[in-house]
Amino acid sequence: MQEERTGNQAKAAAGEEWDHSSDSRFVDYYARQSLTEENRERLERIRADVLWAFPADQREGPLEVVDIGCGPGAQSQMWADDGHHVHGLDINAELVELARRRAEREGQDIEFVVGSATELPWEDGTMDVCLVPELLEHVPFWKECLDEFARILRPGGVLFLSTNNRLCPVQEEFNLPLYSWYPGPLKRRFEELARTTRPELVNYATYPAVNWFTFYGLRQDLGKRGFNAFDRFDTTDASRKSPSGRLALAAIGQMPPLRLLAHVLTPYTRIVAIKQGAGATAR
What are the residue ranges of helices labelled H in 196-255? Predict the structure, then answer.
């Protein structure tokens, strides 16, 4: 917001620059992981969640789609295959170069750029979809990121966020048990170790997770920026569930305490948020 400095301003004041390099083991891991069937299924679920938010006559597009934290570009390529205009951004130069090579090999016209989510290179109100998987937890200036996502989306545009879940003790950010429940000072200690002598704690990531979220907190932050936010229980297709699954989903929708318990049992946070404003036609 206006009272807070942008990420780049804050880093400049601290005399810091973004590090666009990374450990080769980190790059190799994501290069392999991005091609797995498990990852493809995950990306298909994200696409289904996003399209749920659009009226049926708008789902075919073509939509302007931006993939923030695009990595090797698997998600960008999936949306490009569907005929959408796709833009990808990542802070990791090696992964962006890999994404470019893969897209060129498939004959896909995708714009990939190296940059930070705190200062996106696109104009105001130019995007229909903003995809942000597993990124906010790694960026100290995460509120500036939310400002940027809101800025580039047009009214009715859809933001997809996935991140960690502070309510659930199960997590994949640190190779430590029950880490999301650790007190703040202890987390800071392990963050420092991950950046210095124990990089294996975070699978050699240059920027380990430093933020911990809940759906409820992010819903409030997104609401301040003009978004209407939905959690994974809102976007789940009940028709694909068993009778018992449909019953459980209906109960979660009607009983707030049960919904809270369901979040405690979920090791991640998934949000679909729709930017409100004149001309908005999404849900």
Answer: 215-223, 232-235, 243-254
Longest dimension (CA), the chain: 57
Question: pLDDT digits over 223-234, tens only?
Answer: 999 999 999 999
Instruction: Give the integer Cα–Cα distance in Å for 225 and 146.
Output: 8
Is residue 132 within 8 A of residue 69, CB to CB? The reply is yes
Write the pLDDT tens digit of every residue in 15-61: 346 666 677 888 888 889 998 999 999 999 999 999 999 988 888 77
Determine how many CB atoms are found less than 10 A away from the CB of residue 219. Answer: 17
- Which DSSP state fits 72? T
135: pLDDT strictly greater than 80: yes
Closest CA to 218 of 165, 178, 182: 165
The token duo for 15 is: 């005399």
H or E stretch including 100? helix 93-105
Q: Is 277 left (phi over 0), alpha (psi -120 to 50) or beta?
A: left
- DSSP H or E segment with residue 52: helix 37-52
Selection from 139, 137, 131, 157 nearest residue 214 by Cα? 137
Q: Which CATH architecture group holds 7-174+212-275?
A: 3-Layer(aba) Sandwich (3.40)
**8 A C-beta contact, residue 84 and residue 66:** no
DSSP letters spanning 137-199: GG-TTHHHHHHHHHHHEEEEEEEEEEE--TT-S--SSSSSTTGGGS-HHHHHHHHHHHHTT-G
So where are the chain's domains? 7-174+212-275
CA gap 177, 192 in Å, rounded: 18
